[in-house]
Amino acid sequence: MQTVRYRVGSRRRRYRINGKRFYPFLALVTIFIVLLVLNWIQEQGLYAKYKISDFKDQHLEIYFDVEAAQGVPWYYLLAIDKAEGISEEEIGTRRSEQIALHLRGIASPQELDQKLKDYRDDPKLIKKIKYEIKCLQHIIEVYEDKVFPVAGNHYDYKDSYGDGRSYGGDRSHEGIDIMCDMETPLLSVCDGVIEKKGWLELGGWRLGIRGNDGIYYYYAHLSRYEEGLEEGDKVKKGQLIGYAGDTGYGVEGTTGQFEPHLHFGMYERDSWTGSEEKAVNPYPFLNAWERSPN
């Protein structure tokens, strides 16, 4: 039993703290404060930030395609799936299209509450969906306001991400090959800064651009660079940065080892360390940017 003493004038008054009551009460107050802080963090959308690598490529492609077909932002559809906790096996075009029917015609986030009530009038679910949307902000930023990296309409590509490669040792393909004519102009997909420029044995003449969205965009096998570009330079979305070629797979200046094309890669930083980077599949994003009017 603790004793607290106070001096008042020349007299001493003693107050006793009942430990059996005080410490459990203190623990409850602490837990309550922690829960308030966690709830505030969740309300601010700071509790979790999804990365591109948190989702399967084919699932992102489904959401992006349904947005294009139904006119409903893809992240609403993904957020509903996350909030409802459906399994990966349940994710599909048909389910997303059915959900999109309830959200058709949505013109602004202010209309979201009413549209979601039409889907399912459940305040707790609606709150969770809105939280999931906040957690998707990084991927939304990567998706939006981009242009396709190859100018014109004379190109072709398929999903070759992860395919085997043998030159330089057994490895997997960490990007998408966009086949096009020699000297086809190449564009920066977004605003950013040139981090790397120069020769790589595997990539030939290459450029690495750090987008303002945090993604490292990798352009390889260029025939030449647009004049005046140097490491550290800022570039704008749609800016001409170079020309497609067939360089690489040898010492500096090697050409002719394959057909002309742009190897386009995307690398995402680790959200905790901010340094380690992991390749992600550009294919769903390229499809979306190809459809973009920008």
Helix/strand layout:
Layout: E1 2-8, E2 11-17, H1 19-43, H2 57-70, H3 74-84, H4 93-103, H5 112-119, H6 123-135, H7 137-143, E3 155-157, E4 164-165, E5 171-172, E6 176-180, E7 185-187, E8 192-200, E9 204-211, E10 216-225, E11 234-235, E12 240-244, E13 261-269, E14 277-280, H8 283-291
Antiparallel strand pairs: 1-2, 3-6, 4-5, 6-13, 7-12, 8-9, 8-11, 9-10, 10-12, 10-13, 13-14
Indicate the CATH class of the largest domain: Mainly Beta
The domain tally reads 3
Uncertain runs: none
- In N-to-C order, the SSE pattern is EEHHHHHHHEEEEEEEEEEEEH
The number of E-state strands comes to 14
Question: What portion of residues belong to β-strands?
Answer: 25-35%
| Biggest sheet record | 10 strands, antiparallel
How many helical stretches? 8
- Helix fraction by DSSP (H/I, runs of at least 4): 25-40%
The structural class is alpha+beta
CATH homologous group name of the largest domain: Glucose Permease (Domain IIA)
* Span of the ends, CA to CA: 73 Å
Note the overall shape. Answer: globular
Q: What Rg do the Cα atoms give?
A: 27 Å
